[in-house]
Amino acid sequence: MRISIVGAGAMGSMFGGLLAECDNDITLIDVNDAHVSAIHADGLRLTTDSGDRHIKALKICRPEEATDIPELLVVFTKTLHTHAALSGVKHLIGPDVHLVSLQNGLGNVEAISEFVDTERVLIGVTTWPADLVGPGHVHSHGKGVVRLMAADGIARPIVTLVSETLSRAGLECTSDATVWAAIWEKVAFNAALNSICAVSGCTVDQLGLVSDGRRLADEVVSEVLSVAQRLGINVNPDMCKTNVAGAIAQHKGHKPSMLQDIVAGRRTEIEAINGAVVAAARRLEMKLPTTETLLSLVRLAEARAFA
Ligand code: NAD
């Protein structure tokens, strides 16, 4: 497929690299000049369990330099940059382009639907991890999956085509009509671990140092998934709490991206995670005291960086 990926940081570069290795026509689009220059010079250095290699069979450019109209435009910026990123590549969104988001958080369909009809939006969730090691170099490890559906829930051939393309690249994609449950469960997982780590400065495993960490995380999962359940989404709070407990037991030294962003003085994805859940709860006249308190604390920590 002819695929452009706007937001070619950790995840965008990893997906682009694996898709390029599988003979797709890939253009990465990003505003990080150091990253763009490094890939121009030496290709993308991708380090995964399959090895450490330089992938040269892909293009990379800044948004204003992109000219190839893709069949598929993948949005892989942080959620707070989606609007700016799509505004920057508006000239690539022809009448036949489909857009895909595997970003974390809620509100991604709405953000993309400002640029195309919702019937051309594919939404999903991925458990693949990736880190930007430095300009031009991305690292991933282990195995993940992708779950994908059309945003309007209609079984369209494009979903099958994209799923098969991702799976051929080793990204293990299934088209799955229950994606909304997986999206909410990941939002609950991130609302718990990311926001508690962001305000406490703890790594994920350090949340197990005293019982308060586990208790707070469980409260957030219960609150977030109670909203999903009121919306009629068939989520599994017990499984989500088990996953959170597993992360606290196993993710030694891991700093969630929200903690990394606070430490670096960058804005975080809090509005798409705790913020969007609290907004949905207010519309349903529900109260989420722990999730809302963490939202306020992360907003304060963010504001301090810009004061
Ligand atoms: P990242 O910060 O590494 O990459 C985002 C990229 O977007 C950056 O390279 C940045 O320069 C670029 N960008 C910002 N504004 C832009 C603009 N206007 N035009 C073009 N490019 C722009 O982030 P990431 O870790 O790759 O995460 C991307 C999304 O995927 C997030 O929603 C994240 O929550 C989600 N996610 C991340 C992981 C992970 O392990 N990293 C796993 C699953 C989901």
UniProtKB/TrEMBL annotation:
Catalyzed reactions per annotation: (R)-pantoate + NADP(+) = 2-dehydropantoate + NADPH + H(+)
Ketopantoate reductase N-terminal domain residues: 3-148
Name of the molecule in the record: 2-dehydropantoate 2-reductase
Pathway membership, UniProt: Cofactor biosynthesis; (R)-pantothenate biosynthesis; (R)-pantoate from 3-methyl-2-oxobutanoate: step 2/2
Keyword field: NADP, Oxidoreductase, Pantothenate biosynthesis
Role this protein plays: Catalyzes the NADPH-dependent reduction of ketopantoate into pantoic acid.
Protein family: Belongs to the ketopantoate reductase family.
Organism: Variovorax ginsengisoli
Residue stretches making up the Ketopantoate reductase C-terminal domain: 180-301
EC number of this enzyme: 1.1.1.169
GO MF, any single term: 2-dehydropantoate 2-reductase activity
